[in-house]
Specification:
five-stranded antiparallel beta sheet
Length: about 450
């Protein structure tokens, strides 16, 4: 009976990477992959149960079994599939029971890959809702290294929100890869063939941002020419606004107006231009902190935060360190024409003990430094002096030296720590600009914090 539905199933190939049908006994009767070079090389699935094809599946965690046994429907469930040849793939699974005259006669399971995505080149892309390749050099989810729960959930969210046109607010510490996330959202969206433009709001004086955003009209001020702004240049695509919390409050109001009205006017011009852009913004701290300290307008926050994504710090995804280590060893071997085989056990232990305040950016820099110092095929502790002499997480006394943890609330303790961190970091800085670079924040943010904590210049220079 189930065979009568095969033709219908084949028509949905453009929306999934694979389709499987089981009968009422959970025996696979139909299986088709719509991805080139991705077949069951180790075992023919037809006539077998899902558990015989994927050894990590049991009756209770098999969505097909639950569908035929209990009539259960599964929607957008992340599932790991381990093949008998050892290969593992993370997928988004949708499984539905198939009924005829009220009786369950089988189940259909559709699959989309979200990790280690195999290449496809024979599907009509015009009919697809997304693609996982990038022809324009931008990052996509394959560029996000790791298989921790945090990373897999991040990839899942990227694939989900990429199908929307809603604004996105990415928040997370410096060095966690917020632009990588923004590019991935664009790369997997239906805007992927349109421009992706990045603007760091802390890198440009706020007096110039308006002309950069909206463009200029010749004669509007001395030297002004007819030039489009990034909203016009990115029409149909995506604009990534990094460190938006450093933007002048008045400029934030103008940005909000443009986003809400979906039209802009060049400086000095009278003509209104309609624009179609998706805004992805990023901040390097918690949104509540920015709003509380009046560095982000509440109305702009609400407009941007219809979708919020946290970029997880490395200390919360340390199970990815092994993959990151292998990735950067391979990367720098190619870059530097070396043949490093790995890291010593003591180095790997140190990597897992260290808290990585600079996150992935710091990890990458440490690996690059180690490659430059390495004198053998294995990176040793002596090759990573930048963290070898620092206290690691499990060596911390937790006693709150110098009153770092004093205060009546968590916010008080955080502010005490932040002030002490700035003062101590300043001892290695030659100037305020150098201090901002060392702390991996903008000069504008540093000036704000110096004023906030009433830090005197003699403290910085001492």
């Amino acid at each position: 009976m189930i065979e009568a539905y095969y033709d219908i199933i084949n028509k949905i190939e453009n929306f999934f990477d694979g389709v499987m049908i089981v009968d009422e006994n959970c025996i696979i009767r139909y299986n088709k992959s719509f991805v080139e070079d991705f077949y069951f090389n180790a075992i023919d699935p037809i006539g077998k149960t899902p558990g015989e094809v994927w050894p990590n599946l049991s009756n209770e965690n098999s969505t097909c079994y639950r569908a035929v046994k209990y009539g259960e429907t599964t929607v957008n469930q992340i599932q790991k599939l381990r093949y008998v040849n050892g290969e593992e793939y993370m997928t988004i699974d949708n499984t539905f029971p198939i009924k005829e005259k009220g009786k369950i006669i089988g189940a259909i399971s559709t699959t989309k890959f979200i990790d280690k995505y195999p290449n496809r080149n024979f599907i009509d892309l015009s009919n697809m809702t997304t693609t996982y390749t990038s022809d324009n050099g931008l990052y996509n989810t394959d560029s996000i290294i790791g298989s921790s729960e945090e990373v897999m959930m991040l990839k899942y969210k990227i694939h989900r929100v990429s199908q929307s046109n809603s604004s996105v607010l990415i928040y997370g510490e410096t060095g966690t890869g917020k632009e990588l996330i923004a590019q991935s959202i664009h790369s997997h969206s239906n805007r992927r063939n349109k421009p992706f433009i990045t603007q760091n709001c802390a890198a440009i004086p706020h007096t110039l941002l308006e002309s950069i955003f909206f463009g200029t009209t010749k004669g509007s001020y001395t030297g002004a020419e007819n030039r489009p702004g990034i909203f016009e240049l990115a029409d149909g695509g995506t604009i990534f606004l990094d460190e938006i919390n450093s933007m002048d409050i008045n400029m934030q109001a103008k940005l909000l107006k443009a986003i809400e009205e979906k039209k802009i006017t060049r400086i000095g011009g009278a003509e209104t231009k309609k624009i179609d852009v998706r805004i992805v913004a990023a901040i390097n701290e918690l949104p509540e902190t920015c709003i509380k300290e009046n560095r982000m307008r509440t109305d702009l926050y609400y407009r941007l935060s219809s979708i919020e994504i946290e970029s997880p710090p490395l200390r919360k995804r340390k199970t990815d360190i092994k993959e990151l280590t292998d990735y950067y060893i391979n990367y720098y071997n190619k870059e530097m024409n070396k043949n490093i085989k790995g890291v010593a056990p003591e180095v790997f232990k140190l990597f897992n003990s260290y808290d990585w305040p600079g996150n992935i950016r710091e990890f990458k820099n440490i690996m690059e430094s180690a490659f430059n110092f390495a004198g053998s095929a294995v990176i040793t502790k002596e090759d990573i002096p930048k963290i070898a002499g620092k206290k690691v997480a499990n060596e911390s006394t937790g006693n709150g030296e110098s009153g770092l943890y004093s205060g009546n609330s968590l916010n008080d303790a955080l502010e005490n720590f932040e002030r002490s961190f700035i003062v101590n970091k300043a001892k290695d800085a030659s100037s305020l600009s150098n201090l901002a670079d060392l702390m991996q924040i903008s000069r504008q943010t540093l000036n704000y914090k110096i004023k906030k904590y009433n830090i005197k210049f003699n403290e910085i220079n001492s």
